[in-house]
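Notebook entry, structure prediction.
Reason for the run: the old model in the group folder had no record of what sequence produced it. Starting over properly, with the input documented here first.
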Amino acid sequence: MNVLNALPKSVQSKAKVHLHDIWQAETRTAASAAFGFFVEAYGVKWDKAAAKLVKDRDALLTFYDFPAEHWKHIRTSNPIESTFATVRHRTKRTKGCLSRKSGLAMAFRLMMSAQEKWRKLDGRNRLPEVISRVEFRDGVRHFQPAA
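New structure, fully documented this time:
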């Protein structure tokens, strides 16, 4: 959104398609090609937008270092937004809480009840590999040849 906000409204819909080409690419190589295209196409006229994208390049492409099963969970911020939307909705309706303690208690209970409805992580059997820092390239486990 920061990149799109740095562009004029008339260009945003076209640029959004090109941004989607980056994060929806199947491999890091394809994503890098789409990334280069975006910077080349939009960097001449709108250098601030391209600079924002280039500044965070490594962070934006980090998900290629994780199992492909996890990509759809990493690419979205919806779990965070959904959790806090429930809390925000309730606190807005109750016009605030009587005290800080009661507000924290209400938020905690709302999050605990929301947790029961959460969708399980795809590829959760891959978590031990991620924790033990097994190397993944383009979502596939990379086996290093024996020396």
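Summary: Strands lie at 136-137, 140-141.
The old model has been moved to the deprecated folder.
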